[in-house]
Amino acid sequence: MKQALILHGPNLNLLGVREPDIYGTLSLAEINARLLEESQKMDLQLRFHQSNHEGELIDFLHEAASWANGVVFNPAGYTHTSVALRDAVAAIRIPVVEVHLSNVSGREPFRQVSLIAPVCRGVVAGFGWRSYLYALHALADLIAEN
Prior knowledge:
Elements: E1 2-8, H1 20-23, H2 28-41, E2 44-50, H3 54-64, E3 70-74, H4 83-92, E4 96-100, E5 122-125, H5 130-145
Parallel strand pairs: 1-2, 1-3, 3-4, 4-5
């Protein structure tokens, strides 16, 4: 069975209560449950991690290279600031799909630049929790092609 990491960055543990007009009303646990349900239809095993700490996110990416066939990654606020996360994604050599709940291209100028996107296979943004669902489907297709 193919395996994937769903990696959530900083402040995503506050989903459902943090700015619901931007990020929606579902909690992170509810999003994960929906992804798990969908992954079973795809014969894809998922592991979930969330961290507010850049170094932990890097460690999760490094570890994924030894067991995962791909990653769905929401770097959250680190999207726009972290060269270290960009380098970790580039180093692991498995497909990574960047995901965002909000349409970052339509938000503040500082949110419109991703340091991570250039080393990802693609980006899905602006569809609320469904961004994760669409990213999961894209990743499953990428995994199937390899």
